[in-house]
Amino acid sequence: MNSIILLRILIGWHFLYEGAVKIYNPDWSAFSYLATAQGPLSFLFTPLAKPGIIDWVDTLNVLTLLFVGISLLLGVFEKKGALAAIVLLAMYYFAHPPFPGLQQLNVEGNYWFVNKNLIELVACVILFQNPTGEIFGIRYFWKKDKKPIKTEKV
């Protein structure tokens, strides 16, 4: 369980950091990522890059990143945070899928089916199935039945 807690905290930090960086970078936008979407679902993503829509997409992206980051880092509403992360990562994955035969545009590295978005998505599925906030997180303090942590005497 300790490794799942560590995984939750690290992924929470990653999402929180990504959201904060986007807030403090006035030039950041998801425009180029969405405008160059490729693969079988590109028709869902390219319209999101249109003027009037992209501002909403950018705002929702940042808010979702911050929500996921805070919920996982603090261990509160972590199932909702993990679910939001799964949806967001699935969108990132399918906007630029690492499928054979597709030129990889606006992505880091060269992949074949499996990339970092898919790996982090699967990790978030594990977090969704194994919430740990009652063990190590803010939810521990909300718990009515607190059991003391046993430590080994030296």
UniProtKB/TrEMBL annotation:
> How does it sit in the bilayer?
Multi-pass membrane protein
| Species this chain originates from | Croceitalea rosinachiae
Its keywords, alphabetically, are: Membrane, Transmembrane, Transmembrane helix
Q: Tell me which Pfam families the record gives.
A: DoxX
Which subcellular locations apply to this protein?
Answer: Membrane
**Segments crossing the lipid bilayer:** 53-74, 81-99, 119-142
Signal peptide start-end:
none
Question: In its UniProt entry, what is this protein called?
Answer: DoxX family membrane protein
